[in-house]
Amino acid sequence: xxxxxxxxxxxxxxxxxxxxxDSKRSVAVGAALELILAxxxxxxxxxxxxxxxxxxxxxxxxxxxxxxxx
Length: 70
Description:
This protein is an all-alpha fold. Helices cover 77% and strands 0% of the residues.
């Protein structure tokens, strides 16, 4: 398991809530990069890394939104 994804699986909600805004963003960006890497690694052809990286901020936004307390 990647380091960024591993961080998500080992941190509890209260610990995540205590992270700074910048740290929360860093975790989300790291997780988004890991998802892009996994997608690129799984494809045998037609990898459009430039497109996936252009979506990095959107992916990170969605990850952060998913982690917000309801």
